[in-house]
Specification:
Two copies of one chain form a homodimer. With 231 residues, chain A is an all-alpha fold. Helices cover 68% and strands 0% of the residues of chain A. The first copy, chain A, binds a DNA duplex (30 and 30 nucleotides) through helix 3.
Chain lengths: 231, 231
DNA sequence: GCCGCTATTGTACGGTCGTTCAACAACGGC
DNA sequence: GCCGTTGTTGAACGACCGTACAATAGCGGC
């Protein structure tokens, strides 16, 4: 159960580097005060980095504070307890994912097919398609059942994701207008969105657990084939 | 981080009940020796039970030994260390899943369609469809990247599962015989098996994370629809 | 240049962790 | 009934855990 102590934040923050432009030898500043918002962001980033590197074992106050280049006590100054820090990290992680996908869709041509293709391509390429990222999700999922804050975040953000998928499918499959046709279409749409989400998640999971078995473009093709089959 | 101490094994083992038929008061036996194989099995069962109940937090020597109704020292008498116990539990868990599915398939009528239906029905009903079970998988997945023993087990048993799906799809889609047709069919089969596996896993995951969103029979229908679309 | 606010430090505390090991006791063989 | 084998116990160890808190020090306002 031993972890290599995280050497001061490689990439995520200012770390323990005694800052300041002048190289004065004796009396250099020992730390740099930051605005709460900045520090909180840095701590959240450090938390995610630790999860990526060490999985569940990385989720300790000492590991995270070392990664952030900060003392153990600081975390409890900015967050009431560890659970809240983790929940904040989960919220950030989720938001980054969904916003990344939305941006990819926005950058695509305006046809529904192109938008879906862009969405799938983004789903199955870095930074999302990364075995480290699985380790992060897995830890969050594992806490889901026993942590209220995590449940709250899950409900908030997952709805966003489903809405995005739902909306793209609606565009693609077109809208019938007759009330009766609309009702059936609705049911179909709901199930279709669930199915597509499941297929994406499942393929993504398979790739992360055993990258050799499946190429990203094959995953995209499978998803497009599924959507094709809907019409 | 506090756990309610597991009260002596409710269902999995003989627990701490001082055994023996006679109710002699003073000098009752304080424990019962068991064959190594039996004890190992009981410890594995206790490990899985703890994972179901407490998730990752249940994965401690003290929690597990309490669940098994046994002292802390005993685990290291039967397993060299915790990792090996967990890997053994993972192997057992995987084997139970795959064998349960195989049996369900074997009980079904002999037509390929009925076999697939039985397979899907078993996948989306207890004991597999259970949020507690997700908690177990999630812990194992989380260890996958850093634990050699877990990786070994994963490689061994996941292959079994994929082979089962692959074989059922092959039966259903029928075998073309021309060498060229066969080759294309092979490629399709590989991808189809991966896709179906992903769809099942993804739907299963969605159900576990938010049971209200999806009914089991809808999940089965989605999978059957996917297979239907293949021909 | 000094002051006040507060972000930050680092030690301390009580607790749980995985593993070790000497002592103990169940039980089959005689 | 005693003995030897060995499954089992439970205390002990050192390491790490999350949190609390008094002391420290960066830095903007004056």
């Amino acid at each position: 159960m031993k972890l290599p102590r995280a050497r001061g934040a490689a990439s995520s923050g200012p770390a323990r580097t005694p800052p300041g432009p002048q190289g004065g030898e004796g009396a250099r500043r020992r730390f740099e005060r930051q605005l709460p918002a900045q520090r909180r962001a840095a701590l959240i980033a450090a938390t995610i980095e630790c999860l990526k590197r060490y999985g569940h074992d990385g989720l300790s106050i000492r590991t995270i504070s070392a990664q952030a280049g900060v003392s153990v006590g600081l975390i409890n100054h900015h967050f009431p307890n560890k659970d809240e820090l983790v929940a904040a990290a989960y919220r950030h992680f989720n938001r980054e994912l969904v916003e990344g996908l939305k941006e990819a869709v926005a950058r695509a041509e305006k046809t529904p097919a192109a938008r879906l293709r862009a969405f799938l391509a983004a789903s199955f390429s870095p930074p999302n398609l990364d075995a480290d990222v699985l380790a992060v999700w897995v830890v969050f999922w594992g806490m889901y059942r026993h942590s209220r804050p995590i449940q709250r975040v899950q409900r908030d953000t997952y709805a966003d994701y489903v809405r995005l998928v739902h909306e793209m499918l609606a565009d693609l499959l077109g809208g019938a207008v007759g009330t009766r046709a609309r009702r059936t279409r609705r049911v179909d749409l709901r199930l279709a969105a669930i199915g597509l989400t499941a297929l994406i998640d499942g393929l993504w999971l398979e790739w992360c657990l055993e990258p050799g078995r499946l190429r990203p473009r094959e995953a995209v093709a499978l998803c497009e084939g599924w959507v094709e089959g809907l019409r």
